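Just curious: can you write whichever protein you like plus the matching structure tokens?

***
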Amino acid sequence: MAAITEVNVSTIDELLSNDLPVLIDFWAPWCGPCRMVSPIVDELAGELDGRLVIGKCNVDENQDLAMKYGVMSIPTLVILKGGAEVTRIVGAKPKVALKAEIESYL
């Protein structure tokens, strides 16, 4: 499986400097839908390795980043290219739907 970066203030700049599109999964451990989406994101990290870089941001530990990206509910998946947001996916969705939406931005 591809590596997934833990996103925080010390790792965000390096993550966003990547040439590949970046997906950040904003989540919290107490969030049921987040626990449903997390293993799907893990699977997609392996399936889309080399086409997408994935990071996970615990909003409880990184409230400043959640505010910076306007995360109002979780799970929220933000896709960025060149450091700029191109789309976001809010809420739990099945793997097929998530993968199709993500791939449309690769």
